[in-house]
């Protein structure tokens, strides 16, 4: 009598399971004072969130595929995606000046830097997608798949902004995609490729997420916070109009620029497109709303307000959805910069059957409408 063997992909991880330690793995090399020899690079087509499953050149590994392998072994046997060489073979020298967000296991490493051959005063932000320093041991993540997905998606989004002529207005200015070689941990005479993008460094800026973490919303008036949120929602709408949907719209990815953010409405940008979709890509799996003008945020967010921004809202608008909807209606009711809802959104908007209230924003928790 034959017996069906269990599928290893359905096996659950035991409590406390983790991948083996990696004694040959070097310490994180992306530190202040490091210099890198970089070359222009052609990114592969984007895949992952926002794209059809077949867009990925290989499937993401199951944890059972990684079982027993160190991160160094996995990255060696499953290298990042290769592409034809860029026609510009010039080698440039990048100097890392300051660590902005650097930690083994965090994913992409972010550093302030300068480059030989550019104006001495020009500074950049380098975002380095090195799978050897993505989360691995405790998570069981396919580090090279995730590094490729982050890089390919982000590069595609910035390239689309550049094609649309809005580079540097809705998101930080993009200075291209790059590659460089690092010594291979297991074979010192060999090298491994690492991908990177360069963006403008914006000196006087802070994220909405950082302000929330620091409790700054309590120092800002409720109306002022709504005005800043409205700007962020408008940037999101304009990005969609120019061909990119940010699928991770959250306070940590909204950049506020200016020196008096707590008292005047700053310039607003959105960044971090590792989870995004570019409508012009043939494998894009997101529905594009065709329109002659950017769609009014009132309609884009009427049925699906992004939950990450609830803590930014005044108490009155956070507590009562009717008041939040009333604010969106009144703020964009007479706009000429944004257009009405496309037919594809009509059904979602129609499902929101609630009264609309108008109220002065307040943080007084004793307040009731």
Summarize the structure.
The chain is α+β, with helices and mostly antiparallel strands. The protein contains nine helices and eleven strands. The chain has helices spanning 63-66, 71-77, 143-164, 208-213, 222-241, 297-300, 315-319, 321-332, 343-350, and strands spanning 35-40, 92-101, 109-115, 124-129, 174-183, 191-200, 205-207, 244-246, 254-257, 267-270, 276-278.
The biggest beta sheet is recorded as: 6 strands, antiparallel, barrel
CATH fold-level label of the largest domain: Phosphorylase Kinase, domain 1
Q: Give the SSE string.
A: EHHEEEHEEEHHEEEEHHHH
Proportion of residues in β-strands: 15-25%
Shape type: globular
Region (Disordered): 1-29
Protein name: Protein kinase domain-containing protein
Organism: Ceratocystis fimbriata CBS 114723
Please give a structural write-up.
Mean pLDDT is 91; it is low at 1-8. The longest helix has 22 residues, at 143-164. The chain has a 6-stranded antiparallel barrel. It has 2 domains: 18-200, 2-Layer Sandwich (Phosphorylase Kinase, domain 1), CATH 3.30.200; 205-350, Orthogonal Bundle (Transferase(Phosphotransferase), domain 1). It is of the alpha+beta class and 369 residues long. It has helices at residues 63-66, 71-77, 143-164, 208-213, 222-241, 297-300, 315-319, 321-332, 343-350, and strands spanning 35-40, 92-101, 109-115, 124-129, 174-183, 191-200, 205-207, 244-246, 254-257, 267-270, 276-278. The chain is built from 9 helices and 11 strands.
């Amino acid at each position: 009598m034959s017996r069906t063997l269990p599928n290893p992909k359905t096996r659950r991880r035991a409590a406390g399971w983790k991948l083996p330690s990696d004694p040959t793995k070097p310490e994180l090399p992306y530190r202040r004072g490091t210099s890198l020899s970089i070359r222009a690079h052609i990114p592969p087509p984007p895949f992952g969130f926002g794209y059809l499953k077949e867009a990925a050149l290989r499937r993401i590994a199951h944890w059972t595929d990684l079982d027993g392998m160190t991160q160094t072994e996995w990255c060696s046997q499953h290298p990042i995606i290769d592409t034809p060489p860029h026609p510009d073979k010039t080698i440039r020298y990048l100097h890392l000046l300051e660590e902005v967000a650097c930690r083994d296991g965090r994913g992409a490493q972010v550093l302030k830097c300068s480059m030989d051959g550019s104006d001495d005063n020009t500074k950049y932000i380098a975002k380095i997608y090195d799978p050897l320093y993505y989360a691995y041991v405790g998570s069981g993540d396919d580090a090279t798949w995730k590094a490729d997905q982050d890089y390919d998606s982000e590069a595609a989004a910035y390239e689309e902004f550049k094609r649309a002529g809005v580079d540097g207005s809705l998101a930080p200015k993009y200075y291209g995609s790059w590659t460089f070689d690092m010594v291979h941990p297991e074979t010192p005479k060999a090298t491994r490729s690492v991908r990177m993008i360069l963006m403008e460094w914006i000196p006087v800026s802070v994220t909405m997420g950082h302000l929330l973490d620091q409790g700054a919303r309590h120092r800002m008036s409720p109306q002022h916070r709504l005005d800043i949120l409205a700007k962020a929602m408008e940037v999101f709408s304009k990005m969609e109009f120019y061909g990119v949907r940010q699928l991770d719209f959250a306070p940590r990815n909204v950049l506020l620029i200016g020196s008096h953010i707590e008292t005047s409405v700053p310039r607003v940008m959105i960044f971090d497109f590792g989870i995004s979709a570019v409508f012009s890509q043939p494998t894009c799996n997101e529905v594009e709303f065709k329109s002659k003008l950017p769609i009014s945020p009132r309609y884009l967010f009427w049925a699906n307000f992004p939950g990450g921004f609830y803590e930014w809202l005044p108490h009155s608008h956070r507590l009562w959805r009717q008041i939040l909807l009333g604010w969106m209606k009144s703020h964009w009711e007479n706009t000429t910069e944004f257009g009405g809802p496309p037919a594809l959104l009509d059904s979602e908007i129609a499902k929101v059957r609630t009264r609309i209230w108008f109220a002065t924003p307040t943080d007084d928790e004793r307040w009731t409408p």
